[in-house]
Amino acid sequence: MRRDVQIGVVLLCHARLDVAAQMARIWVEGGARVAIHVDAKASARSVARMKDQLADLPGIVYSRRHRCDWGRFNLVRATQDAAQALLDAFPAVTHVYLASGSCLPLRPVRDLAAYLARDPHCDHIESVSALDVGWTVGGLNEERFTLYFPLDWRQHRRMFDWLTTWQRKLRVRRRLPKGLTPHLGSQWWCLTAATLRAILDDPRRDEFDRFFRLAWIPDESYFQTLARRHAVRIESHSLTLAKFDHDGRPYQLYDDHTLMLEESRCFVARKVWPQARRLMTHFPVPPGPQPDISPPQPQRIERLINRTVRRRLLGRPGLYMQSRFPRKDSENGKTSAPYAIFQGFSDIFPEFETWLAENVDADVHGHLLGPEMVEFAGRPEIGPGAISSSTVIRDRDPHGFLTALIRISPRMQVFQTSPRDNQALNWFIATDPNAHIHVVAGAWMLPLLESGMPFDDIRRVTALLQRAELTHLDVLNSVWVKARVHVHELTDFLARPQAMLYQSLQHLPLRPGAPADVPQMRDLHGLSDLLRRLRNSGLRPRLSGDALPLPEPPMTERTAAE
Amino acid sequence: MRLSDLPLPNRLRRRTERQYLVARAFNRRRALKSTVDRTGKIRKGDILAFITMRNERLRLPYFLEYYRDLGVNHFLFVNNDSDDGSGNWLSEQPDVSLWWTNASYKRSRFGMDWINRLLMKYGSGHWCLTVDPDEFLIYPHCDTRPLPALTDWLDASGRRSFPAMLLDMYPRGNIEDEIYEEGTDPFRIARWFDPANYTITKNAYYGNLWIQGGPRTRRYFTADPLSGPALNKTPLVKWHWRYAYVSSTHMLLPRSLNHVYDENGGEQASGCLLHAKFLSNFTEKSAEELDRRQHYANSKEYRAYHAGLRRGTTLWCSESREYDDWRQIEDLGLISRGNWA
């Protein structure tokens, strides 16, 4: 059964009346009747100019002007009056579409009529129960109805918040009019004339109006709630594409959205940037030979908008820049990709870095945080992303250095650390889930064997490095650690170096067939002797264990047994 | 006695400092002599650009063309005693108002007193862009949306300032090799930049981020990166006469204008100022600037350039990236579209 559909449009206009006039023209030329409400704040001159622009068109009525403030009841009052004027002036109207002066019809009005004609008794209004679901973005939900909101939030922000807080403390709870279940939804709807008349002529309308006058943002709840009372059948969606950001502000549409809007097949889109000329000349698309009744498919544009909301709220992990500088522990990802750190391995195997680079598919650096220079793989003067190899520049912002390096490199980053290196990043790395840390505790001592330094110097250096390592191990043993940490004692490692080494490589992207060999180990001759001398000089080499499984000359055995 | 020595709470100290800057700017009104005043043409809602310049005749034509295309409605120039005909050329442009001064650049806080003065008088209530003639603003979607789209969106989001970090651009070979010709796009020559070597620290007192790094620090300031040039800028501000730029356009007072970044992990929208400083006339210019000794911190920067320039001037390295468009810059994480979909 098909019936003729006559669309009437209630057009709420605030600013930019020139654009609103264009929109009214699109609606009227498409065959709709239009009732225009102009905000009382608009200047008389601009209203006169608008009326002038539309003077040649029949089928337009102007309703009584109210002052409109965001979130207040006067917006509902304006809608009511305009709807009444529309229904009075054009009794033949079967459907009423609520749109604003910056809502752009994307498809021909004829298509919309055909779409509505498929089910002429259906009301298209998003209407979600306020009690069950959190529909709102960043704001009050159920409390919109249970508290009193006599103030304008935009003008009396502090007072508004203060009042809300106190009402909560005093457990104020407004009583809802009998028979109403609060519903929320997009303020842009399309109701059948029958439903709308029922709402406007409801014998209890005064009672409802009184209630909603002090509710919060009634334009998102008044018709949504009352439609539930009168409608035959509700299709709970809005025909207007209107997305809000995390602050509840509507997204603006620009010329570059043209293609995506066309694909969305939505009937009306909001909110168009007034100077988006190409958008306004492109839409509405010219009607085809047959009315197109395909339903809107806004998923793609909604995905785009959700993506930008995510970008605004969570950002890109591991990025530190001029407009994203998260405070500690609010990073949403301290770094952007997994990376691995080897501590002590290059002390046990002097050629470890080259060996590792041959065996794994990753960028293997030397001591990136080293004291002499930033040892990028291949030792270039300027590293990936033009990062300088100057230690002074690096130490100015070590966090930035590491995160930028990881973010700019397409491959996994692997580097060596040591108690000799800059220790500023210990906590940062330990609390980063992307980090993979392998430590051989005490291995830093091995290079001292061949250093040829006087014993006094060795003792001093040992004391310093040992203290640095202990501090680092405290960090790695804390309860805050998020990185995957493997700490081996030097003694354990030396007992079965190959197995331990291969085990440490497990989580790295190994090249096929690798690892096939073991890198050359450092000559450990004299280690026990050195440890003994250190111990006897009053230092306690804590990390090396007591039983080093090394062939020692009998002489040492005797002395150690003293 | 210096302001910073007084035992004041920080809030009060910042307020005093701002009032001092505003008073100082007002006090400079007689230092500026109007050459051409077309400010009567400024309409409500126009976007204004404020520029201090000296001997920039070569760059000006492209500069004006670029910002006109972007949607700047009026240009307010301070001509610091140019002798290359810049003044004459500018005074013929229909959308330029021009002031002339021969006062000391250094003693006017590197021109900021003059700019603050003009901003105070003409900028109130407008979106104001304060740039140098070698700085070119790019922002997310700048290829499809003009500047008024951005400022309207900023207005709608309740933001009063927009950050744009300085991105130093340089040519592939020696800076002197390819001659820049008047009216052409400088980024056809200087189209390379450093993608990731920037250091950021937060300035707790003014609340701004202090960004350093880039090719200048990598090349000239390896031993002392702290004295390298600052790259953070907030060039686009919805002005109020009570506001003041503190040091170049790096930071502003009141402090809330500097808070252009998110600290909870999200991203705010931001742009970039492409810096066309390193063109063929750079050597000549830096020698001149060094002679005048009118620049920040005893012209330390220009000294470093000069020392570096004598050794030949290539800023390019194998890790430099070639500039493509704003999307590339955004992917690299130098700018962000924030929630401007």
Properties at a glance:
heterodimer; A: alpha/beta; 2 domains; 5-stranded parallel sheet; 23 helices; 13% strand; B: 7-stranded mixed sheet; 3-stranded mixed sheet; globular
Low-confidence stretches of chain A: 549-562
Structural class category of chain A: alpha/beta
Structural class of chain B: alpha/beta
Count the strands of chain B? 16
Tally of strands of chain A: 17
Identify the strand order in the major beta sheet of chain B. 1-4-3-2-5-12-7
Indicate the proportion of strand residues of chain A.
Answer: 5-15%
Biggest interface pair, residues each? A-B, 55 and 59 residues
Radius of gyration from the alpha-carbon trace of chain A, in angstroms: 36 Å
Q: What is the count of structural domains of chain A? A: 2
Mean pLDDT of chain A: 88
GO molecular function, one term (chain B): transferase activity
Protein name (chain B): Glycosyltransferase family 2 protein
Keywords (chain B): Transferase
Pfam family, one (chain B): Glyco_tranf_2_4
